[in-house]
Amino acid sequence: xxxxxxxxxxxxxxxxxRGINLQLQPGEVxxxxxxxxxxxxxxxxxxxxxxxxxxxxxxxxxxxxxxxAPEELARRGLRLVLDGHRVFPNLTVADxxxxxxxxxxxxxxxxxxxxxxxxxxxxxxxxxHQPARELxxxxxxxxxxAQAFAAKPKVLLCDEPSLGLAQxxxxxxxxxxxxxxxxxxxxxxxxxxxxxxxSIADKAIVIDRGEEKLSGSAAELSNDPRVRQIxxxxxx
Length: 236
What we know:
Blueprint: E1 2-11, E2 14-24, E3 29-33, H1 40-47, E4 55-60, E5 63-64, H2 70-76, E6 78-81, H3 93-101, H4 110-120, H5 122-126, H6 137-150, E7 155-159, H7 170-182, E8 186-190, H8 194-200, E9 203-208, E10 211-217, H9 218-222, H10 225-231
Parallel strand pairs: 3-8, 3-9, 6-7, 7-8
Antiparallel strand pairs: 1-2, 1-4, 4-5, 9-10
């Protein structure tokens, strides 16, 4: 489904990622861990086509897609939800979600595409005709996830869904992502809330200074003291 092979990437002449390898199958949740500045967001942006790799490959659905434009990858079913609950502030909640639905082939009804998101986040149905700018940060994050859900991607890349949100909002958002994966979508999450995120992940990798240091099942890594050492910048 999704694979990186010896992936290198960076910004101009500044290298960030060095030799990242990962594999993800339909229905799996992969958690990317690491300290601030480790390269986690760069990894997602490289996979999604916003940054061109300097070496290695990104493979999606059996084909190499390294360096393809983000809009082309989105049409193929690979979608990135950026950190900071980024929505179109002057559009209504409904129109924000319809933008996601427009990426989906065929013509299913709006309710069919967005209904499960409304079940998880009923506040969105109440605010369906309000501009997104009038929503709280947490509610805007729900809109961003609902928009992505309506696009029905094969792979979802989710960059720090907890950023700027109240702690109480994280369990329902992560539960929504886990339930989404059960229906066959492969999901990659970058998240600072380690305990909560590991509880819904199937496997995880830990990045330190742009290199993969640890990988394994979420259960294994949740009990590995080296994770905290790397996360706190104390790797030896």
